[in-house]
Amino acid sequence: MHAVQGRVEATLSRLLPPAEAIPARLHQAMRYVCLGAGKRVRPLLAFAAGELTGASPERLEIVASAVELIHAYSLVHDDLPCMDDDVLRRGRPTCHVEYDEATALLVGDSLQALAFELLARADIGTPQRQLEMVRLLAHASGSCGMAGGQAIDLSAVGQSLNQPELELMHALKTGALIRAAVMLGALCGAPLSEEAGMALDRFAKRAGLLFQVIDDILDCTANTATLGKTAGKDAAAEKPTYVGLMGLECAREFADNLSTQALDSLAIFGKDAQRLIALTDFITHRKF
Predict the structure, then answer these.
(1) pLDDT tens, 180-206?
(2) Of 188, 218, 267, 271, which is the most exposed, with the fewest CB atoms less than 10 Å away?
């Protein structure tokens, strides 16, 4: 995991515009939000899924970086005053606090564009395969994915959602990009059978939901220093969460069930899924 995190960090540093290139302030801000922090869970999942299909690290580092750029852009926009209005991310001031709101908006726009440029220009598969990668990441990022989930999240403030409504929101806001990371990693290698592809997709969906449930648990049990972002903010903002819906202990039980379901989906892959199994354990038991 450390080796993959280091490789993705180096790849992002290489692919992002140099800090001194004009417009320098925008490029400096892009590098500020992408480098030197973050768990890199999505790139780790892309690399782990790529192991199932024999994908080369050279291809995986491109798709992993593209997914991480989309993730970074979403965090920058989510933190803006018109969204979640947060001042801390990954243990340091958010982009609009460190720079300004206009720069933060342009940073998000630029990171999103760069992600798709990477997928389009790199040698990561046949033209048909690359087109499918672009489609998959675009769908996960748009109104039927991450952006749509954020829209539901904003409209749900102060309201009560039932469990199916909450799961839909997070399947879009958080789960869609995690699912995309897994499937993009697999697409970098040999084709999977229909049965194996469906099993991997089931895993990705469960892992994405699991990540969000653990996030909700940590929001009310961990402190700001540990999380690197403002703890307790969801409850203070009256956002619907799994802890708010179920209670803390039931949310933990739900997370354990999701973890079991995710691992069961990997049974078809045997030992080849060892890295995905380890990442599922990491997601389940993470403290930040």
Answers:
(1) 999 999 999 999 999 999 999 999 999
(2) 271
